[in-house]
Specification:
- By secondary structure, this protein is an alpha/beta fold.
- It has 7 helices and 16 strands.
- Strands 1, 4, 5, 6, 13 and 16 form a 6-stranded parallel β-sheet that branches. A 3-stranded mixed β-sheet has the order 7-10-9, covered by helices on one side.
- β4, α2 and β5 form a beta-alpha-beta unit.
- α3 packs across α4.
- The longest helix has 20 residues.
């Protein structure tokens, strides 16, 4: 029996939102408009990589192209690197898809490291996106949800690693994205329970780097709330490892 914990992080613009009439995403308006911001993402990235370093484990980071060009990503070091579009576009609605994919791939390659995997913004993919991944030589994707313990599967030449989505102890839907925990709607034990339900295979846990420092609904977090967010992420990781999972990365 093999149980792997794959901790993944979307590194993109702060509190990203779709803007009607444009393909590029913006950031939630904090009184200065919806132009993309990156400060929470950069600070959150440093906090998460520091946590992983202290635990002696590696994560998988899906970096948006423009974010890679804007913030200091040097703290990522030798983690597993993927890309995440260029401007957090909905790629299924993008006409010049090849240009956008090339731009996102190149920005991450030139500013961080050559990407070996991919996650689509908003988790939106279609056959065109998978064809582009094949063209770029990307063989691993994590842009889908699946039942806990669902094994990886192939779309053409691309292997898909689903993010777990199941039911909690009260029968409510729970996905393995940690944002509800950062928003105060979930506790670490909920994600540990999700891990307990997986007898074999991968468990992908996901978060956004910016979500350590701010919430779409509540705005910027206090220093105490930031410390709690970091502590909660650590509790999720250590709790799942204690359930018998081996920390790993998406592309070994």
């Amino acid at each position: 029996m093999t149980r792997r914990l794959i901790f993944t992080v979307d590194v993109d613009r702060d509190a990203n939102i779709h803007i009607d009439g444009q393909s590029a995403a913006g950031s939630t308006d904090r009184g200065q408009g919806t132009a993309p911001r990156f400060s929470s993402s950069e600070k959150g990235l440093a906090s998460i990589t520091g946590l992983l370093d202290s635990q002696g484990i590696k994560g998988t980071f899906f970096v948006e192209g423009r974010t890679a060009e804007t913030i200091d990503c040097s703290c990522i070091g030798d983690q597993c690197i993927g890309f995440h579009g260029y401007d957090h576009e909905d790629l299924t609605l993008t006409e010049d898809l090849s240009t956008v994919m090339d731009r996102g791939f190149s920005a991450v390659r030139d500013n961080v490291s050559k990407p070996v995997c991919f996650r689509a913004p908003f988790m939106h993919t279609d056959d065109r996106v998978y064809d582009e991944l094949a063209r770029l030589g990307i063989g691993h994707d994590s842009s889908a949800y699946g039942e806990p313990g669902q094994h990886i599967y192939d779309v053409g030449s691309v292997t898909v690693h689903p993010v777990a989505k199941g039911r909690d102890r009260n029968g409510r839907t729970i996905a393995a994205y940690l944002w509800p925990m950062h928003e105060g709607k979930r506790v670490p034990q909920d994600y540990i329970d999700l891990a307990f339900s997986i007898p074999d295979g991968e468990l992908l846990i996901s978060t956004h780097s910016w979500h350590i420092f701010e919430s779409i609904e509540k705005g910027l977090f206090s220093e105490d709330a930031v410390r709690k967010n970091i502590s909660d992420v650590e509790s999720v990781i250590t709790g799942i490892i204690d359930e018998g999972f081996t920390p790993s990365i998406l592309v070994v």
